[in-house]
């Protein structure tokens, strides 16, 4: 009898949690919408892992609020003492504190510690696979991409706008710098930008005076038409031009990429 | 007995409240020193005038000493000594500020350098607190004439001295950072 | 016996007849102060070809204006004169006019703060409506220049954080109720506190006026080095926030000291009410972190004016970021801790049930306070070295444990209770729900790989609005209803209260719940124009946001109506046991009819004995 209330609650909670978990399993692959890089998969699996563990906590609270509204409400608003008066319940406290410690330490070890380790291990490994190097220069308000291994100083499309093109399946190392190649005399011209490719599941701030690197392997052929998440976007406010500081990105096959490189070279030769 | 309890309580509240304020006001100094450590390549500029700096520090210490004597005076009910002591301390503080103003005005230290940045920030902040301190010392010395402080009741004097010593400490730390380290 | 009378002649010998209302005089003196400061700067630096108002002259002028304003609203008579030993000639009017000038009565100050921060909430809220209106279309159609939009975002954020979040509960409800709840007649530094209030409208007006000096782009965080190259509006951002944080420091100093020293007899540390614990912990946070951000802003201001290279590519960009978030994360706990405390203040009363595990609830508040200074860098996962993420991820996870204690106590109290489902209870339950979502989404942000994707997107926007609106604003409204009978002696309308509570709950979750999805879909922050594929959801979010805005205004109208015209309420309508209910409503000038002696804790409902007595023999304790 003493546990009747708790049993009812637990049953409802279990049912709601089960339904929520089943629904979540269905949308799991798209919970972060569109992810096509090694880094992004780490983030996506961490996101899904956290979600499936946080759903029971959320349903606990949601069911509790509704349960309190239904089962624990007074018939009217005249003040009278609750029939049950508890000051503490050591098992409940022990369970609560124990579970919250256990969960938090688990989240810290997995996914956080494990994923950071995986990320670094991948980076070290990829460094030895002679990755494609892309120098990314952020200025107000433009992304400039250059490919030093191919002697391309600024990759542009037919309209002369900056574009980023990457071959699928090959490790890429981005070197991120915030500087204005056209105003190098002005030390106040550089601000923080943030290099974000939503579909790659990663962003890195570009700090004036520092060089940051970023490793990843794109694993699908894609462009803006495939998903609008395939784009380069500045994510840190950098002045009035911030909303327009984006650039198209396409991930292509190795063959298309070498054609594109040849095309860029010819463009550059014409320009020079 | 009961009255003393209430009075003591009120005094204790002022005293501790003021100390809490001073601890809180130490945060800006801590922040500058913390920031300063973050900057690489800090140095004491050879253009910094050691003699002027040392003179300033001496004036600071002297004015602290004079203000402290003033507190001792009111503890023995020598009201006029206290008033004069505070005014003298304020004058010494003002001289210190004038020396600072002279250094700022002549721009011995170029503001655009790393040392210049730290120099003007530190002296600016401690100078700001010193201006407030001088104002408080003068105000309390006038207040003392109208509101008779006694050896039993002189919280206002205590508070002014707390603040004066606080800003002197900040100023002396700034001196050490600017001329010695 | 008034011991201070000897040292502070406050016998109003020559009551001054003011020719001008204090606020008007404040404005006038502020104008004079600005002109003086501005002209002084021009006189020192008479460059031809400079405009009349430059960035440095605006700063000096602003300092003059602030001085003039503070002296004008009553600081001259009430603070400067007594400081020099003259009798204060300030007479507080005994009618409505006392709310429009410097006051030393903590209840008046509390209401002044509540009014000011509600006004700021309205202005910043209308600002948010403009932002949402702009975002209904993927291209610019309302604002004409993206700098305009970004200024709107910055003003909205800064006003909400420094004028509402840190103010409404701490300076507003705290000033009014903390002395009542600990059985004090007055606060320790009451004049300082009275002056402090007038810094708030000054700071808010400065921020609102900032576009006059040019649109600034940085949002509420003032990130360097962008701030250095921004137009002059940036200067008013620093100065406005400086004034508002100073106001908070004064309140915190006053309330912390009052809590420590002016408690009634028998009000031991073990008996201090939960809300008072909440205010004490945030006061300590304020006293450490508000000066920290002020100094950081002074340095940023200097490096903008001189200019210096503290925070640009030559200095250290990350120093500013660290210094900002070192304050910025404690700031959000400053905002939310009083709310956590208020849940457990109100739930036992509404359920007439013992507060479950009171000690754990208090320990939770204290540990959140201590840990809050150790988590800041999770705001910087995208710009710090990867090896540095690990410890901050740890502390960020850990801080959810003491936060959870507040939930534990609340649920333990609710369990098997007979909860009176009044408007405050309903809003508290909603707040528990909302803050849980805010907290759980924080777990995602604590994990660096996920953070690197959702950082700087609308996911984060949704997350912090869930904690701040969902946690703090909902609880603030709940507390307004709960304490309305005490503030005014009148009762609100239960039906309307509940309808409006459900209204804002729907509006809030519709607005910010969808923002999580927007963030995951790739909507980044600080953009008045965005890729068109995000339009439909943004359009929907905006509709919900307008709905929410109407709901808030509805609450405000309802509370104002009840305050003035509502049915009279009984002395202690909720049967609460804390001390503020042991006096008439609204409380008299000296708060209580006599000295109080507390004899037992306030959160026990398994007996019928009062928690405090009036001390019969007055001479014993006065």
From TrEMBL, chain A:
Keywords: Copper, Electron transport, Membrane, Metal-binding, Translocase, Transmembrane, Transmembrane helix, Transport. It is found in: Membrane. GO terms for molecular function: copper ion binding; cytochrome-c oxidase activity. It comes from the Bacteria. Its EC number is 7.1.1.9. InterPro entries: CcO_II (IPR045187), CcO_II-like_C (IPR002429), Copper_CuA (IPR001505), Cupredoxin (IPR008972), Cyt_c_oxidase_su2_TM_sf (IPR036257). The keyword Hydrolase does not apply. Residues 129-263 form the Cytochrome oxidase subunit II copper A binding domain. It is a multi-pass membrane protein. The keyword NAD does not apply. The chain crosses the membrane at residues 6-24, 53-70, 91-109. GO terms for biological process: ATP synthesis coupled electron transport. It catalyses: 4 Fe(II)-[cytochrome c] + O2 + 8 H(+)(in) = 4 Fe(III)-[cytochrome c] + 2 H2O + 4 H(+)(out). Coiled coil: none annotated. One of its GO terms (cellular component) is membrane. Belongs to the cytochrome c oxidase subunit 2 family. Subunits I and II form the functional core of the enzyme complex. Electrons originating in cytochrome c are transferred via heme a and Cu(A) to the binuclear center formed by heme a3 and Cu(B). This is cytochrome-c oxidase. It comes from Sulfobacillus benefaciens. The lineage of its organism: Bacteria, Bacillati, Bacillota, Clostridia, Eubacteriales.
UniProtKB/TrEMBL annotation, chain B:
It is found in: Cell membrane; Membrane. PROSITE patterns: COX3. GO terms for biological process: respiratory electron transport chain. Its main location: membrane. Residues 1-181 form the Heme-copper oxidase subunit III family profile domain. Belongs to the cytochrome c oxidase subunit 3 family. This is Cytochrome C oxidase subunit III. The lineage of its organism: Bacteria, Bacillati, Bacillota, Clostridia, Eubacteriales.
């Amino acid at each position: 009898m003493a546990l009747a209330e708790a049993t009812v609650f637990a049953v409802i909670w279990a049912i709601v949690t089960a339904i929520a978990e089943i629904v979540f399993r269905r949308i799991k692959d798209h919970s972060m919408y569109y992810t096509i890089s090694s880094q992004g998969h780490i983030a996506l699996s961490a996101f899904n892992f956290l979600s499936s563990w946080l759903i029971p906590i959320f349903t606990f609270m949601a069911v509790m609020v509704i349960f309190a509204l239904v089962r624990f409400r007074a018939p009217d608003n005249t003040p009278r003492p609750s029939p049950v008066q508890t000051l503490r319940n050591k098992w409940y406290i022990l369970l609560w504190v124990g579970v919250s410690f256990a969960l938090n330490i688990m989240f810290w070890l997995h996914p956080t510690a494990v994923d950071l380790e995986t990320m670094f291990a991948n980076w070290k490994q990829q460094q030895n696979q002679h990755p494609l190097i892309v120098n990314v220069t952020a200025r107000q308000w433009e992304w400039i991409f250059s490919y030093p291994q191919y002697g391309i100083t600024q990759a542009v499309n037919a309209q002369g706008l900056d574009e980023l093109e990457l071959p699928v399946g090959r490790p890429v190392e981005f070197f991120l710098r915030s500087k204005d190649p056209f105003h190098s005399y002005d030390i106040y011209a550089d601000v923080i930008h943030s290099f974000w490719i939503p579909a790659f599941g990663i962003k890195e701030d570009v700090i004036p005076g520092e060089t940051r690197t970023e490793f990843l392997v794109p694993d699908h052929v894609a462009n803006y038409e495939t998903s609008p998440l395939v784009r380069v976007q500045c994510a840190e406010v950098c002045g009035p031009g911030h909303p327009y500081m984006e650039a198209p990105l396409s991930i292509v096959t190795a063959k298309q990429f070498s054609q594109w490189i040849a095309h860029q070279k010819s463009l550059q030769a014409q320009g020079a | 007995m009961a009255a003393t309890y209430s009075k003591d309580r009120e005094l204790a509240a002022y005293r501790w409240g003021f100390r809490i304020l001073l601890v809180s006001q130490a945060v800006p100094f801590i922040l500058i020193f913390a920031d300063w450590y973050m900057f690489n390549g800090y140095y004491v500029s050879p253009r910094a005038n050691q003699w002027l700096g040392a003179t300033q520090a001496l004036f600071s210490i002297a004015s602290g000493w004079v203000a402290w004597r003033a507190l001792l005076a009111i503890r023995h009910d020598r009201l006029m000594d206290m008033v004069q002591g505070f005014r003298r301390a304020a004058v010494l503080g003002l001289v210190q500020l004038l020396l600072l103003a002279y250094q700022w005005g002549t721009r011995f230290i170029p503001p655009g350098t790393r040392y210049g940045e730290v120099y003007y920030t530190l002296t600016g902040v401690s100078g700001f607190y010193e201006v407030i301190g001088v104002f408080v010392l003068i105000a309390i010395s006038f207040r003392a004439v109208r509101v008779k402080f006694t050896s039993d009741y002189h919280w206002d004097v205590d508070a002014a001295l707390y603040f004066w010593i606080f800003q002197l400490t900040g100023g002396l730390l700034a001196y050490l950072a600017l001329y010695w380290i | 016996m008034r011991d201070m009378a000897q040292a502070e002649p406050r016998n109003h010998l020559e009551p001054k007849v003011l020719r001008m209302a204090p606020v008007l005089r404040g404005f006038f003196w502020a104008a004079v102060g600005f002109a003086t400061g501005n002209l002084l700067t021009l006189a020192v630096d008479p460059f031809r070809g400079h405009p009349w108002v430059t960035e440095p002259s605006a700063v000096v002028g602003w300092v003059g204006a602030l001085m003039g304003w503070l002296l004008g609203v009553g600081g001259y008579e009430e603070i400067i004169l007594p400081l020099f030993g003259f009798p204060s000639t300030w007479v507080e009017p005994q009618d409505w006019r006392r709310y429009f000038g410097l006051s030393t009565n903590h209840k008046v100050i509390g209401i002044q703060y509540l009014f000011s921060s509600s006004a700021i909430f309205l202005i910043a809220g209308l600002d948010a409506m403009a932002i949402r209106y702009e975002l209904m279309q993927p291209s610019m159609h309302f604002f004409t220049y993206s700098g305009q939009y970004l200024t709107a975002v910055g003003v909205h954020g800064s006003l909400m954080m420094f004028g509402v979040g840190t103010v409404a509960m701490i300076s507003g409800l705290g000033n009014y109720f903390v002395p009542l709840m600990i059985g004090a007649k007055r606060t320790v530094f009451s004049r300082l506190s009275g002056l402090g209030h007038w810094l708030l409208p000054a700071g808010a007006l400065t921020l609102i006026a900032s576009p006059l000096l040019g649109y600034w782009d940085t949002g509420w965080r003032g990130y360097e080095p962008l701030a250095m190259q921004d137009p002059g509006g940036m200067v008013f951002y620093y100065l406005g926030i400086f004034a508002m944080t100073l106001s908070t420091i004064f309140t915190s100093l006053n309330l912390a000291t009052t809590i420590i020293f002016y408690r009634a007899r028998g009000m031991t540390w073990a008996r201090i009410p939960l809300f008072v614990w909440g205010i004490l912990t945030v006061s300590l946070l304020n006293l450490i972190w508000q000066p920290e951000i002020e100094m950081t802003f002074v340095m940023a201001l200097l490096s903008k004016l001189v200019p210096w290279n503290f925070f640009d590519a030559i200095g250290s960009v990350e120093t500013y970021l660290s210094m900002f978030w070192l304050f910025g994360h404690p700031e959000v706990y400053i905002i939310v801790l009083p709310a956590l405390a208020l849940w457990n203040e109100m739930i036992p009363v509404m359920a007439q049930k013992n507060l479950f595990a009171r000690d754990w609830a208090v320990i939770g508040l204290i540990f959140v306070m201590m840990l809050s200074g150790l988590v800041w860098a999770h705001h910087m996962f995208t710009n710090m070295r990867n090896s540095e993420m690990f410890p901050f991820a740890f502390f960020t996870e850990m801080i959810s444990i003491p936060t959870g204690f507040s939930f534990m106590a609340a649920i333990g109290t609710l369990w098997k209770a007979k909860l009176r489902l009044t408007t405050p209870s309903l809003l508290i339950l909603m707040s528990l729900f909302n803050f849980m979502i805010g907290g759980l989404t924080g777990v995602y942000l604590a994990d660096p790989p996920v953070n690197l994707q959702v950082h700087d997107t609308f996911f984060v926007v949704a997350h912090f609005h869930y904690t701040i609106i969902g946690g703090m604003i909902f609880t603030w409204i709940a507390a307004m209803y709960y304490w309305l009978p005490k503030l005014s002696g009148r009762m609100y309308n239960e039906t309307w209260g509940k309808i409006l509570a459900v209204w804002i709950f729907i509006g809030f979750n519709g607005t910010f719940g969808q923002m999580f999805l927007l963030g995951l879909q790739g909507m980044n922050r600080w953009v008045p124009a965005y890729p068109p594929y995000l339009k439909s959801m943004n359009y929907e979010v905006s509709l919900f946001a307008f709905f929410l805005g109407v709901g808030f205004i509805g609450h405000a109208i309802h509370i104002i109506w009840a305050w003035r015209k509502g049915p009279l309420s009984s002395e202690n309508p909720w049967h609460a046991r804390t001390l503020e209910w042991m006096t008439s409503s609204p409380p008299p000038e000296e708060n209580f009819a006599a000295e109080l002696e507390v004899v037992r804790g306030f959160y026990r409902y398994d007996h019928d004995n009062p928690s405090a007595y009036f001390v019969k023999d007055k001479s014993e304790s006065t």
